[in-house]
Design a protein that fits this description.
Oligomer: single chain
Number of domains: 2
Order of helices and strands: EEEEEEEEHHHHEEEEEHH
CATH topology of the largest domain: Immunoglobulin-like
Number of strands: 13
Radius of gyration: 24 Å
Shape: globular
CATH architecture of the largest domain: Sandwich
Structural class: alpha+beta
Number of helices: 6
Distance between the termini: 66 Å
Amino acid sequence: MIANNAIAERLVAQLSKEEVAITANFDGSEIFIYGAIKHDESDKIINPLEVVITVSGPTEKLYVRKKSKHALIWLNTETIEIDSAPSFYAVASTGNLKEIINNTENLKHKISIREVIRSIGNPATIKNPTDFTEGLIRIRNQNNLYQDLDNSISLTDETLFATTINLPSNLVEGEYTIRFLLARDGKVIDQLSTTIPVNKVGLERWIFDLSRQQPLIYGLLSLFIAIFAGWLASAVFRYIRI
Protein backbone atom coordinates (compact mmCIF):
# COMPACT_ATOMS: atom_id res chain seq x y z
CA MET A 1 0.00 0.00 0.00
CA ILE A 2 1.32 3.43 -0.99
CA ALA A 3 0.06 6.60 0.68
CA ASN A 4 0.82 10.29 0.98
CA ASN A 5 -0.09 11.97 4.26
CA ALA A 6 1.24 15.44 3.55
CA ILE A 7 -1.89 17.24 2.35
CA ALA A 8 -5.65 17.34 2.89
CA GLU A 9 -6.52 15.37 -0.24
CA ARG A 10 -4.14 12.48 -0.63
CA LEU A 11 -3.76 9.37 -2.70
CA VAL A 12 -3.65 5.77 -1.55
CA ALA A 13 -2.82 3.16 -4.21
CA GLN A 14 -2.16 -0.55 -4.65
CA LEU A 15 -0.92 -2.87 -7.43
CA SER A 16 -2.33 -6.30 -8.25
CA LYS A 17 1.17 -7.82 -8.36
CA GLU A 18 4.59 -7.10 -6.89
CA GLU A 19 6.67 -8.41 -9.80
CA VAL A 20 6.41 -9.21 -13.50
CA ALA A 21 8.22 -12.45 -14.40
CA ILE A 22 9.49 -12.96 -17.96
CA THR A 23 9.50 -16.69 -18.71
CA ALA A 24 10.34 -18.63 -21.88
CA ASN A 25 6.70 -18.45 -23.03
CA PHE A 26 6.02 -14.90 -21.80
CA ASP A 27 3.47 -13.26 -24.11
CA GLY A 28 2.68 -10.15 -22.11
CA SER A 29 1.03 -9.35 -18.82
CA GLU A 30 -1.20 -6.79 -17.19
CA ILE A 31 -1.19 -4.79 -13.98
CA PHE A 32 -4.43 -3.93 -12.24
CA ILE A 33 -3.95 -0.63 -10.41
CA TYR A 34 -6.45 0.67 -7.90
CA GLY A 35 -6.68 3.06 -5.00
CA ALA A 36 -8.57 5.80 -3.26
CA ILE A 37 -8.51 9.52 -2.62
CA LYS A 38 -8.68 10.45 1.04
CA HIS A 39 -10.58 13.66 1.70
CA ASP A 40 -10.38 15.97 4.67
CA GLU A 41 -13.85 16.31 6.17
CA SER A 42 -13.48 20.09 6.11
CA ASP A 43 -12.78 20.15 2.35
CA LYS A 44 -15.30 21.92 0.17
CA ILE A 45 -15.00 20.33 -3.25
CA ILE A 46 -15.86 22.84 -5.95
CA ASN A 47 -14.20 21.53 -9.11
CA PRO A 48 -13.83 17.84 -9.92
CA LEU A 49 -10.72 15.82 -9.22
CA GLU A 50 -8.82 13.90 -11.90
CA VAL A 51 -6.35 11.02 -11.63
CA VAL A 52 -3.37 10.33 -13.90
CA ILE A 53 -1.22 7.19 -13.71
CA THR A 54 2.04 6.69 -15.62
CA VAL A 55 4.08 3.50 -15.98
CA SER A 56 7.65 4.02 -17.18
CA GLY A 57 10.26 1.42 -18.07
CA PRO A 58 14.06 1.81 -17.89
CA THR A 59 15.37 4.74 -19.92
CA GLU A 60 17.89 4.35 -22.71
CA LYS A 61 19.97 6.41 -25.11
CA LEU A 62 19.32 5.69 -28.77
CA TYR A 63 19.73 7.01 -32.29
CA VAL A 64 16.89 7.72 -34.69
CA ARG A 65 17.78 7.73 -38.39
CA LYS A 66 15.95 9.07 -41.40
CA LYS A 67 16.18 7.22 -44.70
CA SER A 68 16.13 8.93 -48.08
CA LYS A 69 16.08 7.39 -51.53
CA HIS A 70 19.07 8.11 -53.75
CA ALA A 71 18.70 6.63 -57.21
CA LEU A 72 17.42 3.12 -56.42
CA ILE A 73 18.98 2.82 -52.97
CA TRP A 74 17.59 3.84 -49.57
CA LEU A 75 20.30 5.39 -47.39
CA ASN A 76 20.48 6.80 -43.85
CA THR A 77 20.84 10.52 -44.50
CA GLU A 78 20.08 12.15 -41.13
CA THR A 79 20.57 10.98 -37.56
CA ILE A 80 19.72 12.47 -34.18
CA GLU A 81 20.59 11.23 -30.71
CA ILE A 82 17.83 10.74 -28.17
CA ASP A 83 19.51 11.32 -24.82
CA SER A 84 16.83 9.60 -22.77
CA ALA A 85 13.70 7.69 -23.74
CA PRO A 86 11.76 5.14 -21.69
CA SER A 87 11.75 1.63 -23.14
CA PHE A 88 8.06 1.47 -22.18
CA TYR A 89 5.66 4.26 -21.26
CA ALA A 90 1.94 4.28 -20.60
CA VAL A 91 -0.08 7.25 -19.38
CA ALA A 92 -3.65 6.62 -18.23
CA SER A 93 -6.11 9.27 -17.09
CA THR A 94 -9.70 9.77 -16.01
CA GLY A 95 -10.28 12.15 -18.93
CA ASN A 96 -8.48 13.68 -21.87
CA LEU A 97 -4.94 14.35 -20.62
CA LYS A 98 -4.66 17.67 -22.49
CA GLU A 99 -7.82 18.89 -20.79
CA ILE A 100 -7.11 17.81 -17.21
CA ILE A 101 -3.40 18.78 -17.06
CA ASN A 102 -2.28 22.19 -18.34
CA ASN A 103 0.90 22.63 -20.39
CA THR A 104 2.91 24.11 -17.52
CA GLU A 105 2.15 21.18 -15.21
CA ASN A 106 2.78 18.70 -18.01
CA LEU A 107 6.21 20.21 -18.62
CA LYS A 108 7.00 20.44 -14.90
CA HIS A 109 6.05 16.86 -14.04
CA LYS A 110 6.91 15.32 -17.45
CA ILE A 111 3.64 13.47 -17.80
CA SER A 112 2.92 13.04 -21.51
CA ILE A 113 4.99 10.76 -23.72
CA ARG A 114 6.55 13.68 -25.59
CA GLU A 115 7.72 15.31 -22.38
CA VAL A 116 9.54 12.22 -21.05
CA ILE A 117 11.66 11.90 -24.21
CA ARG A 118 14.75 14.09 -23.96
CA SER A 119 16.70 15.08 -27.06
CA ILE A 120 19.27 17.89 -26.86
CA GLY A 121 22.31 19.08 -28.79
CA ASN A 122 21.26 17.86 -32.23
CA PRO A 123 23.20 19.02 -35.32
CA ALA A 124 22.15 22.38 -36.75
CA THR A 125 21.77 20.70 -40.14
CA ILE A 126 18.67 18.86 -38.91
CA LYS A 127 15.76 21.04 -40.00
CA ASN A 128 12.93 19.34 -38.12
CA PRO A 129 14.30 17.37 -35.13
CA THR A 130 10.79 16.91 -33.72
CA ASP A 131 10.00 14.70 -36.72
CA PHE A 132 12.48 12.14 -35.37
CA THR A 133 10.85 12.15 -31.94
CA GLU A 134 7.43 11.76 -33.54
CA GLY A 135 8.79 8.88 -35.60
CA LEU A 136 10.09 7.13 -32.48
CA ILE A 137 6.73 7.58 -30.75
CA ARG A 138 4.85 6.28 -33.79
CA ILE A 139 6.99 3.13 -34.05
CA ARG A 140 6.73 2.36 -30.35
CA ASN A 141 3.01 3.02 -30.40
CA GLN A 142 2.68 0.38 -33.11
CA ASN A 143 4.61 -2.08 -30.92
CA ASN A 144 2.43 -1.25 -27.90
CA LEU A 145 5.48 0.11 -26.06
CA TYR A 146 4.04 3.63 -25.82
CA GLN A 147 0.39 3.94 -24.81
CA ASP A 148 -1.88 6.99 -24.52
CA LEU A 149 -4.81 5.81 -22.42
CA ASP A 150 -7.22 8.73 -22.11
CA ASN A 151 -10.46 8.03 -20.23
CA SER A 152 -9.16 4.64 -19.08
CA ILE A 153 -9.26 5.24 -15.31
CA SER A 154 -12.62 4.80 -13.62
CA LEU A 155 -13.24 7.21 -10.74
CA THR A 156 -16.23 6.62 -8.47
CA ASP A 157 -17.58 9.43 -6.28
CA GLU A 158 -14.20 11.17 -6.57
CA THR A 159 -12.88 8.56 -4.17
CA LEU A 160 -12.21 5.13 -5.69
CA PHE A 161 -10.18 4.73 -8.88
CA ALA A 162 -8.98 1.76 -10.92
CA THR A 163 -7.39 0.92 -14.26
CA THR A 164 -5.51 -1.87 -16.04
CA ILE A 165 -2.20 -1.42 -17.87
CA ASN A 166 -1.38 -4.04 -20.51
CA LEU A 167 2.30 -4.92 -20.81
CA PRO A 168 3.54 -6.28 -24.18
CA SER A 169 5.74 -9.34 -24.61
CA ASN A 170 8.80 -7.32 -25.71
CA LEU A 171 9.49 -5.70 -22.34
CA VAL A 172 12.97 -4.66 -21.25
CA GLU A 173 14.16 -5.96 -17.88
CA GLY A 174 14.49 -3.53 -15.00
CA GLU A 175 12.61 -1.40 -12.50
CA TYR A 176 9.36 0.11 -13.78
CA THR A 177 8.22 3.31 -12.09
CA ILE A 178 4.51 3.87 -11.50
CA ARG A 179 3.40 7.41 -10.69
CA PHE A 180 0.02 8.50 -9.36
CA LEU A 181 -0.98 12.14 -9.83
CA LEU A 182 -4.06 13.86 -8.44
CA ALA A 183 -5.17 16.97 -10.32
CA ARG A 184 -7.72 19.75 -10.10
CA ASP A 185 -8.16 22.80 -12.34
CA GLY A 186 -5.31 21.58 -14.55
CA LYS A 187 -2.79 21.46 -11.69
CA VAL A 188 -1.21 18.54 -9.85
CA ILE A 189 -2.16 18.76 -6.17
CA ASP A 190 -0.75 15.44 -4.96
CA GLN A 191 1.44 12.65 -6.26
CA LEU A 192 3.20 9.50 -5.17
CA SER A 193 5.17 6.75 -6.86
CA THR A 194 6.29 3.16 -6.50
CA THR A 195 8.26 0.63 -8.54
CA ILE A 196 7.68 -2.87 -9.82
CA PRO A 197 10.52 -5.13 -11.02
CA VAL A 198 10.36 -6.87 -14.40
CA ASN A 199 12.82 -9.78 -14.48
CA LYS A 200 13.61 -12.89 -16.47
CA VAL A 201 13.12 -16.11 -14.49
CA GLY A 202 13.76 -19.82 -14.98
CA LEU A 203 15.52 -20.94 -18.18
CA GLU A 204 15.37 -17.43 -19.64
CA ARG A 205 17.25 -16.08 -16.61
CA TRP A 206 19.88 -18.84 -16.78
CA ILE A 207 20.55 -18.31 -20.50
CA PHE A 208 20.72 -14.53 -20.09
CA ASP A 209 23.15 -14.75 -17.16
CA LEU A 210 25.29 -17.32 -18.99
CA SER A 211 25.59 -15.07 -22.06
CA ARG A 212 26.74 -12.16 -19.88
CA GLN A 213 28.91 -13.93 -17.30
CA GLN A 214 30.34 -16.84 -19.33
CA PRO A 215 30.29 -15.74 -22.99
CA LEU A 216 32.77 -18.45 -24.09
CA ILE A 217 30.71 -21.27 -22.59
CA TYR A 218 27.54 -19.68 -23.98
CA GLY A 219 29.08 -19.54 -27.47
CA LEU A 220 30.28 -23.16 -27.34
CA LEU A 221 26.90 -24.33 -26.05
CA SER A 222 25.11 -22.45 -28.84
CA LEU A 223 27.45 -24.02 -31.41
CA PHE A 224 26.85 -27.50 -29.99
CA ILE A 225 23.07 -27.03 -30.07
CA ALA A 226 23.22 -25.79 -33.67
CA ILE A 227 25.34 -28.80 -34.75
CA PHE A 228 23.10 -31.24 -32.90
CA ALA A 229 19.95 -29.68 -34.38
CA GLY A 230 21.45 -29.94 -37.87
CA TRP A 231 22.42 -33.58 -37.34
CA LEU A 232 18.98 -34.42 -35.93
CA ALA A 233 17.19 -32.79 -38.86
CA SER A 234 19.41 -34.68 -41.30
CA ALA A 235 18.77 -37.99 -39.51
CA VAL A 236 15.01 -37.44 -39.54
CA PHE A 237 15.10 -36.58 -43.24
CA ARG A 238 17.07 -39.75 -44.06
CA TYR A 239 14.64 -41.84 -42.01
CA ILE A 240 11.66 -40.38 -43.86
CA ARG A 241 13.25 -41.13 -47.24
CA ILE A 242 13.83 -44.75 -46.23
